[in-house]
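Q: For a teaching session next week I want to show students how multiple molecules come together into a single three-dimensional assembly. I've collected the sequence lines for a complex. Could you give me the predicted structure tokens for the whole thing so I can convert them for display?
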Amino acid sequence: MFEILGITSQALFGQLLIGLINGAFYAMLSLGLAVIFGMLNIINFTHGALYMIGAFVAWMLLNYLGVGYWWALVISPIVTGALGVLIERFMLSRLRDLDHLYGLLLTFGLALIFEGLFRQKFGSSGLPYRPPAELTGGTNLGFMFLPNYRAWVISFSLVVCLGTWYAIEHTRLGSYLRAATENPALVQAFGINVSRMITLTYGFGVGLAALAGVLAAPIYQVNPLMGSNIIIVVFAVVVIGGMGSILGSIITGFALGVAEGLTKVFYPEASSTVIFVIMAIVLLIRPTGLFGRSS
Amino acid sequence: MDKSAMLKVSGLQAWYGESHILHGVDIEVRQGEVVTLLGRNGAGKTTTIKSIMGMVAEREGSISFNGHETINWPSNRIAKAGIAICPEERGIFSSLNVEENLLLPPTVQPGGLSVEEIFTLFPNLKERITSQGTKLSGGEQQMLAIGRILRTGARLLLLDEPTEGLAPVIIQQISRTISRLKEAGFTILLVEQNFRFAATVADRYYVMEGGKVIDEIDNAHLEQHVDKLNEYLGV
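A: Of course. Below is the structure for the complete assembly, covering every listed component.
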């Protein structure tokens, strides 16, 4: 145990850990948003609601079908991603040639509908979801106590984020995605079904949100409002990182989670506003975000 | 249809929104030929090849490729049938490096050139393989735009103004490349305003004006029609 500026290492690293956990969720959610914005040019306000649905699917799998956490990690992103595919196919695809505002309004409306339906069915007090038995308990690192589940969330999120970044920046499929972001008509004329690729990309982005939802379920309670609580911060992360920037979303997500956690230690009053203060400063200095490219 | 006609376009009309651009284009390209669409700016040359490629949403008439009617096909299906386009603005992707740009179009048929063969045609590309696509010079970008469609196995190449804005020495290199592609059995439909360049490679010329073909000239009779061509092109 040691102290910095009168703050114990337990308190400091405890908040740092919470910051990293929040950062992991910010990174995964903003990554999905960045992928969707990059490809579809849609500001997806449904993203928070789909994160919430991901958590609820895990809860329902456990309570209705007896399917546990590990399978939920696989099934929930697929089920929620399939819902995303339907949303893209039957709704968003019809707005492709219209102004951004229409997509924004549609996804905002859908988010309100999803939230309303889940509140009607499950109330808004939150439902408990236990972490898997393999990840209960924790490890004493000497300077702090590290709960196993939280260590798992941070490392797994990091692997998923870096895997997604690698797939987009260093694979053939990723080059199709990047090229289609620039000039979809030409990519289509090379023989690639861009329309299908857009639908699947949306489904993938939604699947990432659902995966974050499953990871979050044992930490926060499963709550119909969990999406709307986090989505505004995630949008701030995307703006700070640079709209559409994959690596920007990941780095900014984790960094802002940590910044928020450290603010809680040193100046708790500012902890809920620090991200928005950073956003305002970044927008003043670099309107395209830290990692964004000017068009 | 002529047995050897690979592409036959009849009564092709096309629109961009309210603007009626093509008013009944009729052209034919035979297997192994290099055919050039000549005409002034706004004559409808680019719209014609974009329509053949399925890149113009509103089009009517008939486009027959190897006996298949493609007028209602989406562009990805047309590409898979064996037509490839090198667009006017080159279409190099800035978020991709040279190698990624080169490997982007998927193989649609066997018989395309290997990457090594493309590097033999365009040695500059090999030296700049890791550079960002849009950091290349205009000539290198044009080589990349042509090179990447040679990989796909497409047998009909639509080249839209490949010499636009390039230095004479690069134009000569592109001329040699087109001649080699012709020898290798590729069929090429070329859009050009540079008649001197087109004369070095083309078998036949269609002259377009106001969204229609107004004349057809065979390369063998070119000398006799030079004055007329100059008048058409406003030279």
